Amino acid sequence: MPAEAKVSAKVNKPAKVEARAAAPVSPPLTERQEARRRRILHASAQLASRGGFDAVQMREVAESSQVALGTLYRYFPSKIHLLVATMQDQLEHMHGTLRKKPPQGETAAERVAETLMRAFRALQREPHLADAMVRALTFADRSVSPEVDQVSRQTTAIILDAMGQENPTPEQLSAVRVIEHTWHSALITWLSGRASIAQVKIDIETVCRLIDLTAPAAP
Amino acid sequence: MPAEAKVSAKVNKPAKVEARAAAPVSPPLTERQEARRRRILHASAQLASRGGFDAVQMREVAESSQVALGTLYRYFPSKIHLLVATMQDQLEHMHGTLRKKPPQGETAAERVAETLMRAFRALQREPHLADAMVRALTFADRSVSPEVDQVSRQTTAIILDAMGQENPTPEQLSAVRVIEHTWHSALITWLSGRASIAQVKIDIETVCRLIDLTAPAAP
DNA sequence: CGCTAATCTAGAACAAGTTTCAGACTTGAT
DNA sequence: ATCAAGTCTGAAACTTGTTCTAGATTAGCG
């Protein structure tokens, strides 16, 4: 009946199809579709690495990834969706990389700060890419909530990993939320040239103190 | 020689002209120019109050404020500049309002949290306006840094006011920075529907604990 | 194989931010 | 009062995100 995989009905956008590598269940993608999706994300990241948010132009992404503009929009319903998906992609890499070398700090706060600073250094290597991803993330409106939430969960997972906490308390989860807020906002101030790298470091270290504040003795 | 006030040279954009009400020194504006500026900001806030960021369309702002499109761009070189200036305007009101009834809390942390929650409630009354202003603020790139910085300073001033600290320590200033980060980011998650009002409250209260953590005995 | 529904493509069309330009209007100085 | 320089206006043009359309392709099923 359908063709190239029944992604579902008309309204369906492979966006939801973005079954993360972990659970490609919802709407299975054809090999060619999966390939297209990868080409698109690759082109997006490449263009972003050059000139940041503005350099990711939908027509160029379509051309670079050898896909028609309409198809690009079928996969990613907006530029913001595309960039947020790009961020999901990069975050997975990052999480994998971070897993390999766990932070060395004594306290949970130290380990989290160390992990975030490591991530920050990675972003510094591709500042334009960071710009595109972070701007998209904070500019996203309600229509992108599910995807942004996914990014948020991934970030939370990274931080909890660094804390080494199996089952964090509600208080600790609040602290993690605040750390994420600070992380995103600090990145923005850095990207827009209003804060130095050193300043970001201080902010991260400052907010990480909240962890110790909320991490009492283990049961 | 010039006309309607010598704003300066060719490249000059009254943007810099935005000498806040406090210090209209740099390039003095004609009365008519000041009036135009007010009309523009008013139209901007009005449109924003309706439909948020997207509803603030430059052509409409120009029409509503009875100014040519080109003139609008002379006063505010981009939509982002316009909305950030709108935020500066609103922040001043807010600061004035907050001054009148200082927060009641015992500790500095309580007072800051109370103040921010009061501001938050004000934003809730005009969620669309809040959306427009906050989105603009976080989307702003380097070209808007001076204006965004001004907003940041104003916010810092409000928080320091609430703390009741005359000369804060560097540590306290760091805490304030982190509070601002959390404030902005929490607003974004609320505006994009990813966090409830209650959640924002918790985040604010959580981060405000940092103040007590960094506020030792007075000298 | 041949069908049928969905997908993909190429390209036009539309929307809103931004730029540009010629001409009318103001302003402040002489 | 006059004039030079800067400002405002109105309208068109340009850019880039987004939508739409008609026709070519593809996938899976009988």
From TrEMBL, chains A, B:
Record-linked PROSITE patterns? HTH_TETR_2 (PS50977)
Family matches, as Pfam families: TetR_C_20, TetR_N
Q: Which residues bind DNA?
A: 57-76
| Region annotation Disordered: where it falls in the sequence | 1-34
Q: Which residues form the HTH tetR-type domain?
A: 34-94
PANTHER family the UniProt entry points to: HTH-TYPE TRANSCRIPTIONAL REGULATOR RUTR, HTH-TYPE TRANSCRIPTIONAL REPRESSOR KSTR
The molecule here is called TetR family transcriptional regulator
| Organism (species) | Streptomyces cahuitamycinicus
